[in-house]
Design goal:
The chain is an all-alpha fold and 156 residues long. It is built from four helices and no strands. 0% of the residues are buried. Keywords: Coiled coil, Membrane, Transmembrane, Transmembrane helix.
Length: 156
């Protein structure tokens, strides 16, 4: 093979060699990495997480307090119900017929009525009532009655 001695060919070869030796500058576009998080976004995310967590804890504390109040009220209700049952039983015991008869006999000296103690009255006149006529009262009697009524009213 013969070597070419053409000057244009030599210039072309030297230009090719220089081109190979020179570093090529590539324009690279900036690409954002998908895994990179901005600091202000991270801080905002942490604040949101803390607020949500603290609100959940607060609501659980309030729920526990309300449950404690309900338990205390339920226990008080049961105590009051049992006290009401006890008082009703005591009332029934006190107000029974046997207890009343016993109290009347021992304390008041009463006795039970016998059938021979009953006396029936028959009226031959029928069912009529006679009302006596009022006599004329003097002014002094009216004042006396008013004063007596007033004193009775004050005495109760």
């Amino acid at each position: 093979m013969s070597r070419k001695s053409n000057l244009a060919y030599q210039n072309y070869e030297t230009a090719q060699e220089q081109k190979k030796q020179q570093p090529t500058i590539k324009k690279v576009s900036k690409r954002r990495t998908a895994n990179y998080i901005r600091p202000y976004k991270a801080i905002a995310l942490i604040i949101v997480a803390v607020v949500i967590t603290s609100s959940m804890v607060l609501s659980m504390v309030q729920l526990n307090e309300i449950n404690d109040q309900i338990s205390a009220a339920t226990a008080e209700l049961e105590t009051q119900k049992s006290e009401a049952v006890r008082l009703n039983m005591e009332l029934n015991k006190t107000m029974s017929i046997n207890n009343i008869e016993e109290y009347a006999e021992t304390e008041l000296g009463m006795i039970k009525m016998q059938s021979n103690q009953v006396e029936y009255i028959s009226s031959s006149a029928g069912n009529s009532i006679e009302i006596p006529e009022e006599k004329d009262t003097t002014i002094f009697e009216k004042i006396k009655d008013a004063f007596t009524n007033f004193l009775e009213y004050l005495a109760g």
